[in-house]
Design goal:
Oligomer: heterodimer
Structural class of chain A: mainly beta
Distance between the termini of chain B: 34 Å
Helix content of chain B: under 10%
Strand content of chain B: over 45%
Strand content of chain A: over 45%
Radius of gyration of chain A: 13 Å
Number of helices of chain A: 0
Largest sheet of chain A: 6 strands, mixed
Radius of gyration of chain B: 13 Å
Number of strands of chain A: 12
Largest sheet of chain B: 7 strands, mixed
């Protein structure tokens, strides 16, 4: 079946550090891949997405590249800020069903 | 204007009670969802409606019943509340019915059952 695996958190970094949050997936066909972010006390919001292999999604300084050969969609940011502290969710959809398949979420803590 | 709104934001109640959570979206979307998020932030889809028709009905106790009076509203009614129902419940909406469309989430309703 389809599934998403994220690195376990929390991930704790200092401000201006380089961030990588790993996400790998198992899916039939050619899924679309997403990163959603949940800031404290809020609902989730879409951060970026990629719909085919080798696509790069980017937003707010975050990037992720759809790697079909390694079935990965790792989230990266070159210099994190305290305001990036949140829970990050990787998700996929194969287009043939109605729902997103969600990873377990990774909590990111940025210290000043 | 809030795109997806939920009421109430906090709900504290006793075991055995019946409660409802309301959700409204003003985005003109056709599809709405209910999710449950547990204390470890794990997100689980519960239900989804498209144009008032139920399209996702995951393995959820039948004490939970969604109701969609129109495209803009999706309410969640919970009978005979149990301790394990304590969680944050999120409503979401999207333009289309497959997971390819961006989902817009409400702020959540924190339900505490004592």
């Amino acid at each position: 079946g389809n599934s998403v695996t994220q690195m376990e958190g929390p991930v704790t970094l200092s401000e201006e550090a380089f961030l990588t949050i790993n996400c790998t997936y198992t899916a039939t066909g050619y899924p679309s891949l997403f990163w959603y972010v949940q800031y404290p006390g809020e609902g989730l919001q879409l951060l970026l997405k990629a719909t085919k292999a080798d696509d790069k999604g980017s937003n707010k300084g975050f990037e992720a590249t759809y790697r079909k050969e390694t079935t990965s969609f790792h989230l990266e940011k070159g210099s994190v800020q305290v305001s990036d502290s949140a829970v990050y969710f990787c998700a996929l959809n194969t287009g043939s069903n109605y729902q997103l398949i969600w990873g377990a979420g990774t909590k990111l803590i940025i210290k000043p | 204007d809030t795109a997806v709104s939920q009421t109430p934001k906090y709900l504290v109640t006793q075991m055995g009670n019946d409660k409802s959570i309301k959700c409204e979206q003003n985005l003109g979307h056709d599809t709405m969802y209910w999710y449950k998020q547990d204390s470890k932030k794990f997100l689980k889809i519960m239900f989804s409606y498209n144009n008032k028709e139920l399209i996702i009905n995951e393995t959820v106790p039948n004490r939970f019943s969604p109701k969609s009076p129109d495209k803009a509203h999706l309410n969640l009614h919970i009978n005979s509340l149990e301790l394990g129902d304590s969680a944050v419940y999120f409503c979401a909406s999207s333009q289309g019915q497959t997971g390819l469309y961006e989902q817009y989430f409400g702020p959540g309703t924190r339900l505490t059952v004592t």
